[in-house]
């Protein structure tokens, strides 16, 4: 017989995420003494101190608390999935799905995924965390995010990955650039041009590796971790860039036009994949998310335009 209840685990997670017993009680809509007593009883049953209590400063997790938090979140998610399955009517999914997304992918892919998910599973709420790669991996490891959308570059080997889309790199040029007369370009054609580098992780490593592969050293004139800033800098005539994702519009945020040319070099494509933590459980909501990603993006040019 289990001695620790799901209610106690829920209070533990709420206190850990809010840093306050009082705030956890407010979130759970119960009296503060009830939460405090439940957590103390849980610590007694486990024989562990989960929080450091600081008068008037809330609570912070101990080392043991940090180790147990991902498992606690997973248990709550499994309990929610159990209840949702019991309430299923005509195979409808319910509940919430927390999704992480590498920031560069967000605007081009997530809205269509969310819209299709809402059409197929209207009773599921998708909560998005759009992050840097490092932050996204941390949230996957902690259980804060159940599944994520990311590029398959420099990902830890133990992650559970499913490739859903691949696309080749292409050149981005400003309006009026002399090289626009050519239907395709090599990186060698650009060796004397100023290069604008998307330097967010892991994009920077990938794009620089393309130049290494063909023995060209780019003249890096400017860098930005923002996909849209890079596009706008190109549109302003400050250099060229090499990107993979291509939105439907070739007009930048500041109203200028950019142009795309395919690369003739034999270069590795960049793959987009769904990612889960090694010990995570594949819930029906996660499976539905993966299925929709494959359904929408397994064809290379849908919805991202091919460079031309």
Please outline the helices and strands:
Elements: H1 6-18, H2 21-28, H3 32-46, E1 51-54, E2 58-61, H4 63-86, E3 95-102, H5 103-120, E4 124-131, H6 133-142, E5 147-151, E6 160-167, E7 170-174, E8 194-198, H7 203-214, E9 219-224, H8 227-235, E10 241-243, E11 258-262, E12 270-276, H9 284-297
CATH architecture of the largest domain: 3-Layer(aba) Sandwich
The average pLDDT is 88
Give the class-level CATH name of the largest domain. Alpha Beta
DSSP helical segment count: 9
Principal-axis shape: elongated
Order of strands in the sheet with the most strands? 4-3-5-12-6
Counted up, domains total 3
**Annotated CATH topology of the largest domain:** D-Maltodextrin-Binding Protein, domain 2
Uncertain residue ranges: 300-308
The count of β-strands is 12
Q: Report Rg.
A: 24 Å
Order of SSEs: HHHEEHEHEHEEEEHEHEEEH
Helical residue percent band: 25-40%
- β content, as a range? 15-25%
Note the main sheet: 5 strands, mixed
Specify the structural class: alpha/beta
CATH superfamily of the largest domain: Periplasmic binding protein-like II
Q: CA-to-CA gap between the ends?
A: 64 Å
